[in-house]
Amino acid sequence: MDKIVEQLKKYKTFALFCHISPDADTIGSCQALKIALTKMGKVADIYCDDNVGEKEKFMFDNIIVGQAVSKEYDMFVALDCGAFRLLGQYASIFQNKKNTIQIDHHAKSQKIGNYCYVNPKSSSCSLIIFDLINKLGIKIDKNMAYYLYCGILGDTAGFRHNNTEPYSFEVAYKLTSLGIDYVDINYRLFKKKNTNYLLYIKEVLKNYKVVDNKFAYSIVRYKQYKKIGKYKNSILIYELLTGGECDIFVNITEKEKGKFDISFRSEFNDVGQIARQLGGGGHRCASGAVYYGSLKNLIKQLKAIIK
Ligand SMILES: [Mn+2]
Question: What is the pTM of this model?
Fold first, then answer.
């Protein structure tokens, strides 16, 4: 961490990167760090090679989406990214350049930055950025607090995921004490539902199945997907469908014919390990993978893996 602080103090221009399928944590981390760097008299731009979901749109201001990096920067900083592929088109920068920094909190994070800080005990990357900004000697203001709180709230699902530890509450106390509208953030990230979301739920529930009391899954087939799209960062679907008689819930979306996006959720089982058997990755309680083939074979494989 000290080496990263040194680099941030030393250089002048920074490109910050969100991961694809941007969530509140990666966006919040980038936004807060950008504000801090700007306060230090530096220049920081945020890039993301993906569009944002409906929920996190309110946080997505001033982000360069899907454009090539045409300017030169002193430092390239990936936040909340544990793999090259999560950077989309920007992966090659991190594969080829030396002036790269990675700050992350994922358990199976791969080293993608030359300067690297990964703390899997941290509930969110935003929590690490809180410490980092303090180490930079910058006073956290209301604006930074807003984004950092969004990040912590997002990754802990409102302090309910089992990654929530006392330090998250401690930092949340400090951030909310700065006068941010935390009731509104909670509403935007968790309570607010739009019609598209409800239509999505309707489609998902059509294909909800329980397999031998071991896992439950829902499928959005390609035809449905074309009609309704995937509800990005659909935390509410997990809210609705996990915690049933089966501890493991699998959300399957056929995004292209024969290409399935799979998300796993669980309270008590390690679904990170299940996802890795399918070439994916993630946390103990939340993970994902992509599967190419037939749905029949996918279900067969899931049955073989989840015993
Ligand atoms: Mn995160």
Answer: 0.83
